[in-house]
Queue: 2 jobs
Job 1
Amino acid sequence: MSHPDTTTSPETKTRPWWQRIPLTLQIVIALVAAVSVGIALGAGNPSPSNATLINNLAIPAELVLKALRALATPLILVAVLHTLMTTNIPGTTGRRLFVLLLTNTTVAILVGLFVANVLRPGTWGNVATSTNTQITSQSLDPWGLLKDAVPEAVLKPLVDNNVIQLIVIALSFGIVLRGLKSEQIAQGKNGYQPIEDVIGILFEAVVRILNWVIALVPFAVFGIVAKTVAKEGFAPFQSLGAFIIAVLVALLLQACYYLTRVKFGSWVDPLKFLAGGSDAFLTAFSTSSSAAAMPITFEVLQTKVGLRESSAALGALVGANFNNDGTALYEAMSALYISQLIGQHLSLGQQVIVILTSIFASVGAANIPNAGLVTMTLVFTSVGLPTQYIALLVTVDWFLDRCRTAINVMGDMTVSTLLDGKKPRTVDEA
Ligand code: ASP
């Protein structure tokens, strides 16, 4: 989802000096401090007198996760409404765009689940499962899924954090509001404008609150890492290392899939695609935000890859709002990883639910840093996985977010390139 530009807001300009230290650096400092404190507190052999202190170290992470869970649903709702009301999608191309987006995202999730099932990163190390984990067993029930997609009350999905029902509500209202807007424009009326403004402002408000929570992430990382090192030593990080490797392998496979599609589905040479897109990939990697990379993606698609402006706009500006393949892949892999880690394996039926909710969660993820972490809470809830384990993922998210954001941008560029077709643009079209 797109988001309003908050980088030049007055709030940003008046930030105190410590908030101007890049988040990544803050997290690295938190990690170093946490490891030292964890070692000082026993590194796997804690003294019983420190037990309360060690347990309390997890409080910031619990609070951050609670806040992220609370923000996930309003964020998805207003982001979908905002995008549907403000973006311009032409008719038949819209259908083609939709099919491309859905195929790419589904492939991304399947790649993620395949790699997680083969490499089984969650079994590479031991983590003491301190929390009582109970996975509700769910079998594959397509009719039940369809029935569950319709909420009992309009506001219920917001309260229950049910992502599929929420997207149904958001899409229904979004499509209707969009239709009403076009009718009013055709009649020369502008009654839709106040609603559009309210949705825009609500969106900006949710994103700003999200930024406050994200500013607290270094404290959460400090607490959870210090507690884990103190209680269990370094064994859990062995499995996190395996998880990082597995995610990187899956993202690489997804990149190969894009290049193959570009080769056989468009006139563009995959190498030119890679070289031309490098500025966009690097911006995505360095900012962790595909929204920040969006103008650059749009620009390089035209100037360096050589696409028509209309195809560049559809993939990089319109599709980008719904298309987060890297995020979808990551969310599905995280659910599987945590299920392996705590020894509660997900059945095939549950993995299908993970596929569906990851598609919706990635559609609802804003194109800003760490947004995937927010909507991940919804994927976990859908299969009864304990969301407190997301705290463990927070420690590596600063790095993996960068990698999946680059893939999100590559996915948008692939969609643009495929829409551009098999014939290069002519001089007249340039
Ligand atoms: N940072 C990602 C993006 O901007 C979203 C995510 O957190 O997965 O595309």
Job 2
Amino acid sequence: MKRILVTGAGGQIGSWLVPRLRELYGSSKVLATDVRHSGAESEGGPFQVVDATNAKAVGQAVMRHRADTIFHLAAILSAVGERDPRLAWHINMASLESVLEVARQQNCAVFVPSSIGVFGSSSPKEMTPQETVMRPETMYGVTKLAGELLCDYYHRRYGVDTRGLRFPGLVSYGIAPGGGTTDWAVDIFHKAVREGRYTCFLGADTRMDFMYMPDAIRATIEVMEADPTRLVHRNAYNLTAMELTPATLAAEIESRVPGFVMSYEIDPVRQAIADSWPDHVDDRSAREEWGWAPSFDLAAMTVDMLEHLSG
Ligand code: SER
């Protein structure tokens, strides 16, 4: 991993990953790309507008930058995907296909984020295994699962070094997530700091896995740096740091923001998506195959989020 191209650099993950990659590998070595130029992603290094669904444009950018590794982050998330399923299929699959083809032709390694969204109601909810029944019920989940299979195919058939992680909900400050089911766990912090109250679109006891962004960024880099001979489940690893419900996160915030009030107005579409996802995944393969261990628990994440947002 010496020369890197990132798609979706202006998104929630990209806005954290690009600066970290630049710190580790050198600013000029990391080309940030996105379908539009929002400003922040071009700070501190090269940026280019690239539509990741356009294989020719991706191919030219990879060639000019002489990239050997692609972090393909561009995607439509679950709630937006349910509003326009065809668009979600097109963006998520066409971009992945173009990235994989370019990687095959130009000999690049590829990282693709997958998601707890690959699971569905028929998957076991507790300690959801690495390999189990996977019948996702959202278009987002369908594209992420198809994406895992396509990455496996490119690895097996063409030897492309594809690697991925099934991220849980990601909590971060800075750029907000773009329309997912887990966005409440980000929104709640902003509202707590600004207004002292939050109305949650999921029910109080909806359980799901979460992770603080610094851990997600570290996991991304660690899996890409891992010894390839140890990676059995390369596309993609179950991953978690903590299990949350809106009620438990609200209580944690309330203990640090006195007077914080949580109320609930359930959005049936996002509630149905959340209910179809695991309560808690089993991430032992990640721990065993490349040494995954989270460093932020609920308390540490809450303290850090509140500190950054209040500052
Ligand atoms: N956080 C994503 C979403 O809610 C799932 O990976 O869509």
